[in-house]
């Protein structure tokens, strides 16, 4: 009997842990289907698409002051595998068109592009903030001005994060390609940028889950699981979606000139869904743990 009791005590915690995760996953699926997540993520994709090309224009105008056109083209080529090929080719064409324009109106064009990109991106961030707040079933109590200020602040930080991501993914490899004589250590740097990118993604998403939603409980232990799962899932979805668009999808034959817009909207929509999914996992883990603690009292 002692042996049986010992086996039960040693095997029950893993079973309980697996049962807990099964309940969390099932409740996450139910929550994602109950909430108006799809509509909110569609709004994120729409405003993200509106902000994309003004943001690209701003980046090209800024980098064009310091870099050669061939260097910028190499940066776009480095996005292969992360951004679908149809979208990457459109970005390359947009880059060529911008570089062919005269530099006379550079300052005005840069200011207008930045304003359009900031407004569109902040609206998308606001929709994403609302969707993540809904996962905790708590109303957003911020007033109108506070909500706008928070969305603008998060958009600004997200812009800095995107600059870091583009630096790791595209700028550093393009720099090494332009200056191959820098040394043999560049292979190590090119390899290390991926775990650094993964860590920055988890930190950035965890910060978004911590500060963006308007909710009472903001303990760090309910932030990291969803952030880690969301970043890993996003990388897998990006690779799978790029493969699907390039090998299996018939977007150009079906949508014609709208193929790039459709692909970009789907890519942004999937990305927004994954962010909300991570927030939902955190919320369900918190509810499950609090329910178990209430039973033990």
Poorly predicted regions: 1-12
The shape, in one word, is: globular
Beta-strand portion reads: under 5%
Radius of gyration computed on alpha carbons: 22 Å
- SS elements, strand count: 0
Our count of helices gives 10
Domain unit count? 1
In whole angstroms, how far apart are the ends?
Answer: 29 Å
Describe what you observe in this structure.
- The protein has 297 residues and is mostly helical.
- It has one domain.
- It is 81% helix and 0% strand.
- The chain has ten helices and no strands.
- It has helices spanning 2-34, 37-63, 69-77, 85-99, 106-134, 144-178, 186-211, 224-248, 251-255, 259-296.
- Helix 5 packs parallel to helix 10.
- The radius of gyration is 22 Å and the shape is globular.
- Residues 1-12 have low confidence and may be disordered.
Describe, in short, the structure shown:
This protein is mainly α and 297 residues long. Helix content is 81%, strand content 0%.
Detail the topology: elements first, then pairings.
Elements: H1 2-34, H2 37-63, H3 69-77, H4 85-99, H5 106-134, H6 144-178, H7 186-211, H8 224-248, H9 251-255, H10 259-296
Helix pairs in contact: 1-10, 2-4, 2-5, 2-10, 3-4, 3-6, 5-6, 5-10, 6-7, 7-8, 8-10
